[in-house]
Structure prediction request, 572 residues.
Amino acid sequence: MQPSQFDENPKIIAHNFNLFYGDFQALKEINVDIPENAITSIIGPSGCGKSTFLRSINRMNELIPSVKTTGQIKMDDKDIYKQDVVELRKHVGMVFQRPNPFPKSIFDNVAYGPRAHGLKNKAILEEIVEKSLTDAALWDEVKDDLHKSGLALSGGQQQRLCIARALAVEPEVILMDEPASALDPIATLKIEELIQNLKKDYTIVIVTHNMQQAARASDYTMVFNMNPDRSGYIVEYGSTSQIFTNPHEKITEDYISGRFG
Amino acid sequence: MNHTLTNQEKMMLAREKAARKPNLKRRKISQSIAFTLMWLMGFISIGALIWIVGYVLARGFPTINMEFLTTRPAGGFEGEGGISTTIVTTLYLVVLTIAIAAPLGIGAAIYFVEYANEAQNRSKFVRWLVRTARTGVEILAGVPSIIFGLFGFAVFVSFLKFKFSLLSAGLSGACMVLPVIIRTTEEALLAVPDSLREGSLGLGATKWQTITGVVLPAAIPGIVTGIVLSVGRIISETAIFWVTLGGSYRLPQNLLSSGRTLALHVYMLATETRAFDKALGTAAILIIIIMLLNLAINLSSKYFQKRLSGK
Prediction:
């Protein structure tokens, strides 16, 4: 095992991880430790592989048939590419860029995951739904409308519903792919606040295009960039305060000061 | 001094010229002419439809009464009797055909849309097979119904010895509407955004749970439309059932009984009897059923849309 990059326990370790779409290499030699119970943000210019890396952690990339990977991503020291993918996704939840609630009631949206894993007891489901919605800071707004369609909620509420839906399966890691990019500033702040509160129970990895968001909402920051052949690599990785106040790399400095990207 | 104009100068000159001689009036006239023509075309096509439907309904209604609806055809050159058994036979055939075609068609579409991509990547043979099947469906969708009738006659009626029967007709009819159901279901599945699939898979649901729990419920309006379209097709086809269902006007007793659908009855009355008024009366009933079916499509799609949008 390689030495940890930080003091905290690494939850996820990528080791010489490469990803290819057919012949095109999208990620090159990714080596990172992602600490447990912390928020790690991934920033970098468009198309540099941030989302691709995020979606490698729950193997969502495999939905694209031509994807091939080499190297390892380990969670709790177990290679995730050697696990059962359905089981893996139970432990690694995901929140997507655009809110994607199912066309079902609010209750059924949150209960979907536990039900898929075989839970049928109504009382326990009700408890899980209430707890997840409370943790996602949505309970007070919807507790009287649980039978209403999730699509009837506002964009910000829909995204919190999707977070509640992810929490309901009790994952250990939550991946967020620009979760606030489709939301207005007030809804964005609510989501950020919520993410802060989730940190104590979950390991959170968040892709963002918003520098301020990364700066104020995360503990660690990973800066991605593209090689001339368009494959993505990690420029720099460190504590968020170090990256934003004292970047070691010129590219990082240029990127966070808005000179490119 | 003589110098050639640059493109930019030419453009400026043209604009100045256009500004000096406004052609607004001419443009407005051509617009009115175009609109009038469109209106006329729309009017002619709708007018023709209304004429046909109106004619059949107006000529058919005097024949329709309780007795006409509740007695069975008596046969003969005069076309005596009503249409009761043909209504029941039509219903039987619709239910039987859909019961055969819907599970097959929906299953095939699910395979094409949800599984084939993945399988294609694994083997060249599967890729070839899927492509051939897809092309096959496209071709079948355009094949005239009598061809399915001939196939049904050769295979189900003669070879498998099902005779002229509901079973032969149901199987042949299923072959006919299968492409319709496959294609509408495929389109409905493709219209379900991938973000819903990802959302479900991301929660640790299996692919099959994703399909039954999220994809199919979201695709139901499209699938229902395909099935209702197929029902319309079964109700209105004649040739295919003439060569597979036979033409008995008795009430079918079991799957191997012959029978006569409404549309087939219209055809028989018009070609083999002098009871043209009864043909029109039966046709009016057919038109009413088709209208009700269309109403059902509209209502159901509105209902589903409302439910899906959560408003």
About this structure: Chain A has a mean pLDDT of 90.
